[in-house]
Amino acid sequence: MELINKNRQKRKKLFSLFVSFLLISFLGLLGFFILKSLWLGTWTGEAQTCRTSGGFCFSFLREKWRYILFGSYPDSLLWRPILFIFSVILGIFFSFFRFFWKKALIFYYWIFLVLFSPLFLWGIGGEKVEISLWGGLPLTLFLSFVGIGLSYPLGIFLALMRRDGPFLLKYSSIFLIELVRGVPLISLLFMASVMAPFFFPTGMEINKTLRALGAIVIFSAAYMAEVIRGGLNAVTQGQREAAHSLGFGYWKMNFLIVLPQALKIVIPPTVNTAISLFKDTSLVIIIALLDLMSTAKLAVSDPLWLGMSFESYVFVALIYFAFSFSFSQLSKKVERSLS
Amino acid sequence: MFRTKKGQLLAQILWGLFLFTLFFFLLSNMFANFKVQQLSFGYSFLQEEAGFEIGDSLWSYSASDSYLKALWTGIGNTLKIAFIGNIGALILGLFLSICLLVPHKLLQFLSESFLQVIRNIPLLLQLFVWYALISELLPPIRQSWEFLPNVFLNKRGLYLPWFDGSLPVLKGLNFQGGAHLSPELLALCLGLIIYTSVFMAEIIKAGVLSVEKGQWEAGHSLGFSYAQTLRLIIFPQSLRVIIPPLTSQFMNLTKNSSLAVAIGYPDFVSIVNTSLNQTGRAVELIFLLMLTYLFLNLCISWIMNYFYRRVLKWNL
After folding, report:
1. Rounded to a whole number, what is the distance in Å from the CA of A40 to chain B's nearest CA?
2. Is the Cβ of A23 closer than 8 Å to some Cβ of chain B?
3. Where are the domains positioned within chain A?
4. What is the dihedral of CA A231, A235, A241, A247, to 10 degrees?
5. What pLDDT was estimated at residue A140?
């Protein structure tokens, strides 16, 4: 028995060494390729120099970053989207400190980013910029922030209806939630882009971006409702009884006692849903909106800079990664502090 | 929600009235718009000739076939991707979860970083990257890369021998015989499998960790090795925790297969899109699209519920 164990130990060690060796050589190879493409990279120069050098083409990004980031937003008013992006980053930064976990942060996110920022991009009290001109990162952030922000209250309402609503309301809510969760987001976006105009009164037109936003709001509300329902079920019955014994009615009980606890419990899954929604806004490329994903793809199709897709994709992948990763770290932090 | 029975009834009546008026309003708008554009509601157009080719189909299809057959072909392609993707993602997810669980610091660190990279980048972007890699990095057809005997990889996709014994042979400008996976299909499958497997790996890891520590010790005291304990003792017990979230991942993959339209693979959504552009029958076709995906998801949940009930029986 002793001998077998020793042999096993030896084999285990050998195998572990072998795996380490494989992984280190893989890492070395990866590092080598990255360093090589950076070393051979072109910082200044035309597309032709890029193609011959065989490295990462930074001059493509120097040429195209403005279009990829901001789409066709007018040059003279570029400070608006820059300020918007900056305020989003600031909001994420603040959220990392427990010191700021107060009502003011909710206010900042909700009033400022969700309600005010679209008006600001559109140009309230100044030169108007049509929504169809918005593009790039501001559009992606607009769709995801406003989409999530508007879907959250709707999700709460749907979850409450699904849990305690009388027959007709309950089944309407279940129908909506299950329908939306059962179909891909693309079908909802198609619905918004080609089918919805049929259902508006003749002659009425709503901007395509806003229609897509509507689809995103409904889509994310269904997922939010399921997350929030989990939170509602996690609040113990005793809390509800306590509220009843204080003489609270249904709405007072929910808004003062149950929901504050329920929403707090489900902050991590809510953030996860928000992250996946943020990534999913990239699907609007299929209905030809110019979000970050589409501008990256369009920048590549410039005949002068053909074959630079890798550079473009890496650039936007880094942006998506930065936002999404920081949100997921935030969710982890909240989760740790809740437990 | 409402203090009295009367209140409940009133709310329901009001909501019912609201729904009814909304429905009526939307329908009347639709018919008014149809009248303006001289359209009519109905599915009779499905019998008309489609007139477009489909690059990849499970059964024979030509441009002179009807829209109905084109849509069927699309559903077939969607099912094909869902099938390959779900099985591939499950296998890769299992492998990744083992990488996460094995007590090897470097391996854990690397697989954890891989997870973070994949899960924080939109699937659509990953599909574009795979497609660009396939169409830019792979060799042209004449210099195909034969990395296994009779399996060829080039810009036009993957050529491999098929079960009926036919081998791919280079004839003129193209391969003949064997099976062919187009670059779009390859990119789509790679992207879907890798993206979903990452989420599956997390689920499987959480499931395995949810099994009591005593079970590991019991396995070791029976003289089982690490792998044997994992396979024979831990895994069967963790299935109870794993299956419900895994089901939703299977559904996600099936729904995400609709992204095929973005890289030009003729799946159901892409064929609906083409037919829609040709006929202008937006309402009918999108209705069909949603019903189909609902039905597919329902099937997945039926199948998985069947497994889940069986697993619950073992565990008791």
Report:
1. 18
2. yes
3. 57-338
4. -50
5. 92
